[in-house]
Amino acid sequence: MIIIDGQKTEKSIAMFSNLEEILTNVMQDKTMEDRIITDVYVNNEIFSEIYPHQAEDLASDGIESLEIRSVPSSQMALDIAAEMTKVTQMMESGGKNVARLFKEGKDADALELLQDLLDVVRDFLAMVGDLRERYLNGADEEFQTKTVELSDLLSEMSEILESEDWILLSDLLEYEFAPQCLAWKTISEKLHKELIARFAQ
Prior knowledge:
By secondary structure, the chain is of the alpha+beta class. It folds into 2 domains: about 1-65, no CATH class; about 75-200. The chain is built from 5 helices and 5 strands, in the order ββαβββαααα. Helix 2 (about 75-105) packs antiparallel against helix 3 (about 105-135) and helix 2 runs antiparallel to helix 5 (about 165-200). The protein is elongated.
């Protein structure tokens, strides 16, 4: 039995050879247009892929029940945008923590945390850019300007990383990166409001 958003469907699990085939078929259905799958329950247990295409390895003969939950893509976009403000606060806090660790001489700990921070920043910029591109006709002037500023700062930090000037790097994190995170907090709040207005139309 396949249940989608609380409704039983006429689709039979036996029609497919594995879970990935089922999910692909479901996403091609007209009722799933502009919707995103959020949860998949196999035999009443949440399924989450540990590695790409793991669903392909789950044969249908081992599936007794399948429940799929989804939300409109607009709702997902709003939820993600609402989280972006929290991410900017994490970025600011992370930058200050890395700066503190460098100043305390804990270089190994600082470098490990810095790598995580840089990954978060890259993902953040990609996500904000994607939301603007997909729902708000691309980047506005403020977004473009701030993106260039942050990208330039990250490039400068990468060069300093290579020269291993930890004091200069900690100063950049504390006095330049942290203030930019505050600016991105404002941009994120504006993005969320613009998306709310966009989907209210």
